[in-house]
Amino acid sequence: QVQLVESGGGLVQAGGSLRLSCAASGRSFSINRMGWFRQAPGKEREFVAGIRWGADSTYYADSVKGRFTISRDNAKNTVYLQMNSLNPEDTAVYYCATGRFFAEHGMDYWGKGTLVTVSS
Q1: Which residue, 53, 50, 89, 83, is CA-closest to 66?
Q2: What's the 3-state SS for 26-81?
Q3: How many angstroms separate the CA atoms of 93 and 10, rounded?
Q4: How far is the C-alpha of 70 from the C-alpha of 23, rounded, in Å?
Q5: Mean of the per-residue pLDDT values for the chain?
Q6: Regions of the chain with pLDDT less than 50
Q7: b or e along 60-85 (b: 16 or more beta carbons within 10 Å of the residue's beta carbon)?
Q8: Do residues 106 and 2 lie in contact, with contact meaning Cβ atoms separated by under 8 Å?
């Protein structure tokens, strides 16, 4: 089992920044990729960003490219999502997840999420 706990969400004005954190515990040594997903009110959960161990390859949804950066601190078993130039369309509950591949059905473990609200 892997436990994931997100933190760092909150209320920010449009144009502002936030950094989300996701701390992994349990069988974290089995993790080789982690991703961030988000679910806006009334919408389906969508992939935001992912990182694979080894070469630290990163992947982003088109909607966040150039604004969001995913990174990890292996010593802390923590993955981060730096979010810049936020806009109201980024308002959502953000979840971190780990699993086999970067799609909702490919993730096996999920955190409970952290709410990000961007005001206009």
Answers
A1: 83
A2: ECHHHCCEEEEEEECCCCCCEEEEEEECCCCEEEECCCCCCCEEEEEEHHHCEEEE
A3: 10
A4: 14
A5: 95
A6: none
A7: bbeebeeebbbebeeeebbbbbebee
A8: no
